[in-house]
Design a protein that fits this description.
Chain lengths: 114, 117
């Protein structure tokens, strides 16, 4: 299974862009990169996902390198409410089932400071 | 309706009790998931149901018994649990299921916090 590596923690000033890196050097060609976040005591929340191309939605942008071995989640204007644990996940399609497993790594704790 | 509803929010049980956690979604999703999360750890996958059939069991002990009565409901039956099973149990659902391209997001509920005494 492809695994992800993220820094355990990061700080960001309120109003500035937060850039969260993720390494997934063993990713396969048909595996997607997902980002979720989890605010304390809540269920994980979907942010964005991508395969090869960069993606943008109302929450964030996802930049995937050309070799797909790493990606960066960008929160363009971080607010205090963005303080959370951010998980970068490679969605695995197991051999015995076509249902893709979402396996969480350790994540990055992002602290947005005033 | 884009919600996954889990009940109860909190549950305290003894090691000899039998209890159940419930999860419900009305988005027409074809796959439903149970995750377990210990404090300060990431969620760990337990089970996946796809089109109401058990698709994945991540070697979970038999004291945890999942059930999918219909496409909208997912239960987790608990029996003879141990104190180390105390955790937040998260339910999730996704639109795609077996044989579908896994491009959709998983919608998570708020979880059921279980304490085993």
């Amino acid at each position: 299974d492809a695994k992800t590596t993220q820094p355990p923690s990061m700080d960001c000033a309120e109003g500035r862009a937060a850039n969260l890196p993720c390494n997934h050097s063993t990713i396969s060609g048909n595996e997607y990169v997902y980002w979720y976040r989890q605010i304390h005591s809540q269920g994980p929340q979907y942010i964005i996902h991508g395969l090869k191309n960069n993606e943008t939605n109302e929450m964030a942008s996802l930049i995937i390198t050309e070799d797909r071995k790493s990606s960066t989640l960008i929160l363009p204007h971080a607010t205090l409410r963005d303080t959370a644990v951010y998980y970068c996940i490679v969605r695995v399609r197991p051999r015995s089932s076509n249902t893709g497993k979402l396996i969480f790594g350790q994540g990055t704790t992002l602290q947005v400071k005033p | 309706d884009t919600e996954v509803t889990q009940t109860p929010k909190h549950l305290v049980m003894g090691m000899t009790n039998k209890k159940s956690l419930k999860c419900e979604q009305h988005m027409g999703h074809r796959a439903m998931y149970w995750y377990k999360q210990k404090a300060k750890k990431p969620p760990e996958l337990m089970f996946v149901y796809s089109y109401e059939k058990l698709s994945i069991n991540e070697s979970v002990p038999s004291r945890f018994s999942p059930e999918c009565p219909n496409s909208s409901l997912l239960n987790l039956h608990l029996h003879a649990l141990q104190p180390e099973d105390s955790a937040l149990y998260l339910c999730a659902s996704s639109q795609e299921g077996l044989r579908d391209t896994p491009t959709g997001e998983l919608f998570f509920g708020e979880g059921s916090r279980l304490t085993v005494l």
